[in-house]
Amino acid sequence: MKILIRNVLLNGETTDIYINEGKIEAIGSSLTRDADKVINGEGKVAVPSFINGHTHAAMTLFRGYADDMPLRRWLEEKIWVLEAKLTEEDVYWGAKLACLEMIKNGITVFNDMYWHWEATAKAAFEMGLRAYISAVFIDMFDRKRAEEQIELNLHLYDLSKKYSPNVVFTLGPHAIYSVSEFSLLWVSEFSRKNGVFVHMHVAETEDEVKFAKERYGTSVVDFLDSLGLISERFVGCHGCWLTEEECEILGRKGAKIVHMPVSNMKLAVGKVVPHLLFSKYGISYCLGTDGCASNNHLDMIETMKFASLLAKFATGDPTVLPAYEVFQLATKKAAFCFHLGEWEIKVGSTVDIILLDLKRPEFVPNFDLYSDIVYAANGSCVDTVICMGNVLMEDRKVPNEEEIMENARRIARSLVDRDR
Questions:
Q1: Cα–Cα distance list, 301 to 98, 151, 233, 262, 419 (Å)
Q2: Of 60, 148, 191, 262, whose CB neighbour count within 10 A is largest?
């Protein structure tokens, strides 16, 4: 598809942007190009789309179901009980609702870990998003279950080609307390041989840190590093309890971390990610929403604001993680984490583009665009979304959104009542 965006604000100047099959071919005033789609950009600003570094998409079905509970009770009494009932259709509609919500909030790329891998892949493919998807790899230290998980992931790796180029297969060992050393060694070797990302919860809670010490006699990251897992392909999520020694290893090996400020505060995990250590050891990191059961909203603008304010509060320094820097964590730096190339709106780039509506009160008087985006706005300011050269939303309208919401609502209600 050939798309021409007319009279849009870009880097402080009004211009046109011409996109051909997902690649920006021209930027300039009064462009004369053939286009299948012309978008009026007047009163809007073009920025790179947002990247959601960690989520469990289909958990939109659990939004508001089990709030304000301690983490362990929340998991054992509510979440795991419902997840045991999930079907392929449940996950498909839950993931499709998540895709709709992410499009509405300007997210075109998400990194997911959940059950029924193909249901999420199908939802992302149909909605036109880019997705890095892993199946939840859990064996609970049972060898038979480990071998079944390995066979499943080999099958999914081959199946993923069906959903290319939108979907990228990743490995998703859940955490060190739910995956055996035998399986983690297999994950490490498969990742190395095939260049596949490893997507894993890391140092999220104090209990996880204690588990590593008691079972393996070391820290979470040191144990994973001993298995060859810590590399430029490793995407560790949360990291609230990381030590300086662990940050040194992560930085030296080129591993990535995803920070989830909203869910970490909501579930009271006990610590804040060590931003200053990330800077000290050159750790590349980005932001994620986590799932809707522990965040309730897939809004990266909201996540940016929480990340910035939490960093300032935790360090006692109001200059830490300023607006433009945190915006980069949700865009360009996130793209680096997932090997997406230069996530900038410039000629030759394949970046996804969103248009923000500047005619909203949040953008008045508009002294600083990035300050307004991070501290004043929210996802409802996103007017238009273009992903991989396709228009997914214009004037805040997404095709079939009513059908998606109705089916997700029906599925969620039936899931709670099922087998009671």
A1: 16, 39, 26, 12, 38
A2: 60
**Is residue 54 in a domain?**
yes
Residue 213 has pLDDT above 90, yes or no: yes
Which among 129, 89, 123, 122 has a CA at the least distance from the CA of 105? 129
Which of the listed residues 287, 306, 337 is the one where a domain comes to its end? Answer: 337
Nearest-angstrom CA–CA distance, 188 and 351: 30
Our CA angle for 217, 223, 226, nearest 5°, is 120
User: Cβ distance 382 to 394 under 8 Å?
Assistant: no
Give the tens place of pLDDT for each residue, 75-124: 888 888 889 999 999 999 999 999 999 999 999 999 999 999 999 999 99
pLDDT at residue 420 is higher than 70: no
If asked whether residues 237 and 178 sit together in one domain, one would say yes
CATH at residue 19: 2.30.40.10
pLDDT value at position 214? 98
Q: What is the mean pLDDT of the chain?
A: 96
Checking if the pLDDT of 300 tops 80, the result is yes
Q: Report the domain count for the chain.
A: 2
366 pLDDT more than 70: yes
Range of the domain at 311: 50-337
Please list, residue by residue across 386-413, b when 16 or more beta carbons sit within 10 angstroms of its beta carbon and e when fewer do.
bbbbbbbbeeeebeebeebbebbeebbe
pTM (2 d.p.):
0.97
pLDDT above 70: percentage of residues in the chain: 100
